[in-house]
Amino acid sequence: MGTLHWLIVIPFYFFGALSLLLALMVVARLLRLKVKANTLVMIAVTVSIVGVALPLVAGWAEIHDYSGRIMLLIGVVSFLLAAADTLLEPRLPLPLDQDLRAL
After folding, report:
1. Residue 1, domain member (yes or no)
2. Is 4 contained in some domain?
3. 2 within domain boundaries
4. Were 65 and a residue from 53, 56, 61, 79 both cysteine, which residue would form a disulfide, CB within 3.0 to 4.6 Å?
């Protein structure tokens, strides 16, 4: 990794965490879990970093495995999850909604 090619994983950290946060929010709404937004964000960021870095460090994946198709899939999934969360919010409000509005 002598070159800067490894920087390609930065969007995977960001969009992976975003998609996972949205998925956790949808699950929390459906299960009516009383969780704080900070808790979900910390879980999403930690899992995203481990999910991207662990395969690289362990040798299970190479940099070229992180392709644009996977990034596109993550983007599409995040838009679908955002739509689902937006539709569920009025019907299944949670305490984390106030946390998010305060931002």
Report:
1. no
2. no
3. no
4. 61
